[in-house]
Amino acid sequence: MTQHLARTLPDSEIAGVENSLVPWLIGRLRTLGASNHHWAFGNFWQIPLGSYNVVYAFLSPAPMARLWEKAQKEMSPGSLFVSNSFRCPGTEPTFVIEIGDWRKTELYCYTIPAASPQANAPARDNHHRLRPT
Q1: DSSP notation for 40-80
Q2: Are 116 and 46 in contact (CB under 8 A)?
Q3: pLDDT tens digit string along 73-105?
Q4: CA-to-CA distance for 33 and 89, rounded, in angstroms?
Q5: 0.85 exceeded by the pTM?
């Protein structure tokens, strides 16, 4: 996903993090030469989310409640949290994107509410926000 975004939005800064060696290596090879894509090997729980306008996660159902809590705490109001295939328990997505692939993938998109207790600085201007049309 991040590789596609980096190609589609060349004026944006795209960052990705993976903690499994083989997927990280594949992603690293796919992003070689992309000056607007930063691909890191690491633990996303340790990465502050406050500087991102959009955060995309493809995990499992187990950590989604905790990740949604982290996103609400750290991301700027109005920014977007996107979960591939798994809903955040206890809240309804702002909108859902149906990908139309063989997996029938759905992206659950959540706008960070204005009442979100923000821990970090506002999002940087060089990121693009995805908005429903």
Answers
A1: EES-GGGS--TT-SEEEE---STTHHHHHHHHHHHSPTT-E
A2: no
A3: 999 999 999 999 999 999 999 999 998 889 998
A4: 38
A5: no
Bridge partners, residue 39, by sequence: 16
| DSSP conformational letter for 88 | P
Residue 112 amino acid letter: I
Amino acid in the structure at residue 106: E
Contact 77, 114 (CB under 8 A): yes
Residues 15-63 pLDDT 10s: 888 889 999 999 889 888 888 888 888 888 999 999 888 888 888 899 9
- Exposed/middle/buried for residue 81 (C-beta within 10 Å: 0-12, 13-18, 19+): buried
DSSP secondary-structure letter at 84?
A: E
